[in-house]
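quick one: iron/sulfur cluster bound model?
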Amino acid sequence: MTERFAPPPAHGCSKTPVLKERGQHEVFCGLTGIIWLHRKMQDAFFLVVGSRTCAHLLQSAAGVMIFAEPRFATAILEETDLAGMADAQQELDRVVSELLTRRPDIKQLFLVGSCPSEVIKLDLATAAERMSAQFAPNVRVLSYSGSGIETTFTQGEDACLAAMVPVLPQTDARELLLVGALPDVVEEQAVGLLEAMGIGPIRILPASRVSDEYGIGPNTQYALTQPFLSDTHEALQRRGANHIAAPFPLGEEGTTQWLRAVADQFGVSDTTFADVTEAPRARARKAVAQASEALRDKSVFFFPDSQLEIPLARFLTRECGMDAIEVGAPFIHKAVMSPDLNLLAEGPTIAEGQDVDKQLDRCRAARPDLTVCGLGLANPLEAEGMTTKWAIELVFTPVHFYEQAGDLAGLFSRPVRRRDLLKLEAAE
Ligand code: SF4
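yep, here:
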């Protein structure tokens, strides 16, 4: 099955000592996830309980939605709330009642915590329980934290999905659950490949509507499609569901191994697997080969941001011919990351957490050909002559599964090619 790939490395990175750093870190907050989650969950509303800064973040990130019927908003904590002079719970009850009266289309409401609501210790979990009882059975109210105090931007989706797992009903049905919010077109491709192998029923977390929901139980077989869902993974484990461990479906190899792991769990034969995957694999291989020409033998350095860093390093080193110098990830959950770490050949520094000044020093000393980092670091590094890729683009762009493998390589090769062209022009 993996005959066209390089054999797995004799020594992968799963046993490499991890450089753990705890210092100043440069990341976006988890509110960002609302931008893609509200598109996936058609009857949900996200009510951020936060400050004007939180409202500005959401409005600027989701500016394109300004004329649509909004499915997220910010309940702004005023100075009187922050100073404890007003009863913020009462205010929240009033805001939610008004919202749900005006918007009967909302079937699931998320109260989303922020840095300010956490600083004043506003108990949104209890508020959600109280409101769930009040508005049942028409509306389900849940809460999660999107705060950026100690988190990174992809944790918002993880916290949201983890909040849903305990309220899903119990079932004994043997079903495949795909966990993670993918763009619709990518999700359709994944489901199409799996159904073509005879695998089903297939469920998705998050479901697009509350009425589409299903149960969870010991016969639920789940596969993560995003590497940043460790809390959701733990919540599913607590429900007794079975995790199908696999490299993440990024690039031809990651997608093939991910599909193979799911197929094995459902007893799909090698012949059926080959029949379904041969053609898209060939397309992916060709597209990656074309798009990755500029990446061959170039070096890459990852700052911790999206939590996609380890699977991406695996893709860039094994399929695009790059050398990884440092792979920094905000958090490394071994059960989730081991399949990718096993395929990533020993060599790069594997770092967890961040002490940004020390990491910048290491990056400047290494002078990588490409640095993958957050928005806040990209411009200063570009000004120092480094070539960068914004990590957040990787979450907003369809990059999973076969048909997107070439685009994924292209996201990294574009800045490298641009830099090569600029160097050529400067030399002429
Ligand atoms: S949650 Fe925190 S980091 Fe995010 S916008 Fe609000 S104040 Fe800023």
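The CA atoms of residues 186 and 300 lie 27 Å apart.
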